[in-house]
Amino acid sequence: MSSTTTSGSPDSPDSPEEQVILSHLVNRLLQREGGNIPVERVTLRVSDYADLSDQDAADLIDDGADAGIYTLNRSQSGSATIVGVSPQGPEPQVITDAFGELQHDTGADFRVISVVTDSINDALHDAGYDDFTALASASTDDIAGLTGTLTESRAENILKEAQRHVPIGHRLAQRAAAYYSQRSNPDTGLGEARVTDLSLVTESVGEPRFLAEGWDPDDERGMYVSNIGRNAGTPVPTGLHILDNPDHQSVPKAATHPDASYDALPVDEHGEIIPPAVPIDPRLQLPLDELIAKKLARGLVPVRVVGPRGSGKNYLLKYLCHKTNRGYQSIDVDRSTEPEDLFGPLVPDGDVIVPRNGAVKQGLLNGDTIVINEFPVMQAGAAIALHRLLNEGTLLVKSHGELVEPHPSARLVITMNPPTREYRDSEPMNSATRGRFRAFEQPYIQDVEEEVETLDRQVNSTDVVVDRPTLRKIVQFAHQTRQNESWPTLSTRNLTILCEHIEDGASPKAATKNELWAVAEPNQYPEDAYETLNDFL
Question: Where would one find coiled-coil regions in this protein (predicted)?
């Protein structure tokens, strides 16, 4: 049960001043700790804020529980834990001073911004900026020069920091409005859904850029050069050609692209795509982007990427496709997937039956990079139907009576989870199929600082959501969960969700506990990890 914010009257005889202070102390502790608080911890802390002994505080909590202020869980041993509270009246200043201001956007004190002095704060209010939302909407020219010390560079810093103090609800509304406008019909101004019949998307991907530019095939300007992760200091050419049509509808888009959707690649404050954190293959000891790109450069060579959930398998593949302007078709399969789901069914057309292309077949015709996720769970017949493509680079669709020779830019990649206890429901891959792939392992990021850097660029690209020291503690704890099979595992993807909860107003510890609970398997108990979490947050 979470704490509530319903307030009683501070002047009620059931809510003496000490009870008001105590209830707000409990409320703040529940928020910060992310749930249950032992009564003993509260009684030990309350003397810092009110003239109460341990026993007086315990008696007030018991009285408050009877009055519905606190919700208690009592163990068989007699110890009690507070799991919910209804704070009484407005928050006392002593609690606000100790825990910080609650999020408000009225009567803003701009002096919380590092470069704002008393005179600048007064000047901003005199100029009509009464809250952070209004200030963040201003331009540098609007506020520069309001005082003699408010220079243009200082104004830029003020506006950047002001954005961090705008209530998240306002920022979310602005983002949603921008996306709605982007996805609206330009003629009517109304939002609309988009349905794409993949069988009708017949435009091929672009041509290799070296042809259009008249370069030699081995000119590095026309190929993917691995310059991220370990290769950042010594870029490595991979031979994977860049195509010349970045606007092809199957090419993964940046979040700033006019045709971007919810699955667009995030960008940093400079509008650049945020690169993935590239792990090192544990056996080949080479960066994974370099290895995959070199295999894709060899043509229709099937690639298998094995890694735990949330390790970034699809993000890395989307990034490679974006950097090389290649079409990207991600297909999720399951136990009910049949060959016609991949290649297309036979459908009536007047008096005759004609083939209708499925996503895999049409993608191969268009020159896309086909990514089949959770490949081993497919029925054996569907996987075996791909054997000729895996062996010889041609696709035999028996039901269509067609032998398809794919577009020269077409590629095939499959992804799967490792055969560990956490993924015990996954089917093992048929050995005859497994041997046809070039296989790589994508583990979780091993280096804490590298993962911190990646998350920082993702979650703090426009506004600072989580400061670096806190982000580092969260990542360090996540690495602990990946080493203990009895704990829920926090992936890199889970950490981005966790940071989203923090942006919504949750404390870091509360957000971490929530994500542990969210990913826990039935045989795992997130509470087992909470004690260790206390060592980090």
Answer: none
